[in-house]
Amino acid sequence: MAREALVNSDEPSLMDIIFGRVARTQVKYHRWAKTDRNARFGDLFNLVSHPDYLLVAWEHVARNKGARTAGVDGVTVRQIRQRGEVGVFLAGIAASLRDGTYRPAPVRRVLIPKPGGKSRPLGIPTVTDRVVQQSLRMVLEPIFEADFLPVSYGFRPKRRAHDAVAEIHFYAGRGYRWVLDADIEGCFDHIDHTALLGLVRERIKDKKTVALVRAFLKAGVLSDLGLEAAAGEGTPQGGIISPLLANIALSVLDEAIMAPWAQGGDQSTQTGRAKRRYHGLGNWRIVRYADDFVIMTNGSRDDVLALKEQAAEVLARVGLRLSESKTRVTHLSEGIDFLGFHIQWRKRRGGGKWCCMVFIADKAFARIKTTIRNLTPRRSPRPLTDVIIEVNAALRGWAYYFRHAIAGRRFSFLRYFTWRRFVAWQREQHRWNWSKVKRWLRRPDGSWRTIATEDAVLFDPTKVRIERYRYRGRQIPSPTTRPRPPDRHHLVESPLR
Q1: Arithmetic mean of pLDDT, 387-410
Q2: How far, in Å, CA of 141 to CA of 119, rounded?
Q3: Which residues form the Reverse transcriptase domain (predicted)?
Q4: In this model, does residue 194 exceed pLDDT 80?
């Protein structure tokens, strides 16, 4: 498994060549699927078990944070590497796939706490199953990406949550202000297997590949109560293949709602949409990120109610239903929370004009404060440097995610809140009064120093530049973009990116 380039040579390494080869194959299949919307692909199983695909899949799994966790077999990526058995491990997977002896192991289930006291079940596959799922995803994703509509943003290459929020902002400024703010109840747990496999077969005629998808759906779960056989619904949360399968199932919703926008539809052109408005009819558009979606219309509340009924009927075909507690019909003047942002149609300060504004949602702000509290308990004996490093990681990721919102006040308060937490912790730990705190942090000129040690400086959220995220629309790069020159670090994360 050579990784380095030849000595004294500018030639790409063997690994770079393999990554480039896989990327070019993916681009080729994507273009075939894009060219012929009715094509069904066969002989894909050989790609899933191909050494190049398995090697790229291994690199992806090894770089993921989940590489440190083990499945039901107790094996981790680190153990395989330390034993020097990566080549043997991948060869064994390829052999079991080819001779038909490969069987996915049950996933290990853990419960992740959620706000409100609830928990989310997360399945942890074995390292072997993760590699096979990643290889399978690399084969299927280029084909199904050709069918996915641009209104879907979750778990897709070159798309992100900010694009979904920017699209809502864009159409809100064009009159689309009545909204169905929807959420699917237990999406990953209730997708009907028969319906999902039917959608997969519309594009994949290779029976071995379809059987492999079915095997992962039927693998079962190992919980504290023992082995639970898989039912006829649900995709394994935590599995690498699960987001793609969920997008395949939910693509029927995108297609149903956006049917009038398809070529020849009465909303497919600006003139057609203007004509509908002239006759008092509304136009609509869906923006979806995984199982969270918003349907916007420039019509009336009745239009939204009709769209809600339509969405419920379409979702029922794949075994899903809307969450009554999280789904509501509203006007943007009341605001909606979407992907951690609060989006609202309101008047500018000082009596200015009305516009769509994007803020940080209260729940998202409460969560980061809870995270800071949990990292800085007053009786913690941990070294100050270690805590600063952990708090910085949380603050930096949170601040850069929300830097495209109207976030100045939130960032300022978060800086103050974090500073107070550290000061209260140090006062408790060292039994300091305020005079000693001032001696620690006050400069001779009376200003306050940043909390820091020799090895770490506390992150300041107010230093993050706040700027509007521009709506990219049709300018989002296509996965058909010609792959760059071999760059392993670029291709490992997602060979289609």
Answers
A1: 97
A2: 30
A3: 93-343
A4: yes
- Cβ atoms of 463 and 142 closer than 8 Å: no
| 70-96: average pLDDT | 93
Q: How far is CA 352 from the centre of its chain?
A: 36
Contact (Cβ atoms closer than 8 angstroms) between residue 323 and residue 185: yes
pLDDT tens-digit readout, 111-140: 777 666 666 777 889 999 999 999 999 999
Q: Give the separation between CA 405 and CA 398, rounded to whole angstroms.
A: 12
Q: Is the pLDDT of residue 2 over 50?
A: no
Burial of 10 (0-12, 13-18, 19+ CB in 10 A): exposed
Structure tokens at 350: 């000082």
Q: Amino acid letter at 57?
A: A
Give the C-alpha separation, 215 to 355, whole Å. 50
Residue indicated by tokens 């009927």 = 313
Contacts for 480 with CB less than 8 Å, ≥ 6 apart = 27, 30, 31, 34
pTM given for the model: 0.89
Query: What integer pLDDT is reported at residue 226 of this predicted model?
Result: 57
Answer for the pair 258, 123: CB distance below 8 angstroms, yes or no. no
Size of the chain in residues = 497
Handedness of CA 436, 437, 440, 441 (dihedral sign): negative
Would you place residue 482 in the very low, low, confident or very high pLDDT band (cuts 50, 70, 90)? low
- Residue 204 CB neighbours (<10 A): 22
Using an 8 Å Cβ cutoff, are 178 and 297 in contact? Answer: yes
Distance CA(13)–CA(1), nearest Å, equals 11
Q: What is the mean pLDDT of residues 321-325?
A: 90
Please give the structure tokens belonging to residue 447.
Answer: 């200003």
pLDDT of 220 reads: 76
The backbone torsions φ and ψ at residue 108, rounded to the nearest 5 degrees and listed phi first, read -85, 125
Query: Across the beta sheet with 341-347, what order do the strands follow?
Result: 336-338, 341-347, 354-360
Distance CA 402, CA 408 (A): 10
Burial of 84 (0-12, 13-18, 19+ CB in 10 A): exposed
Two tokens, residue 156: 């897709």
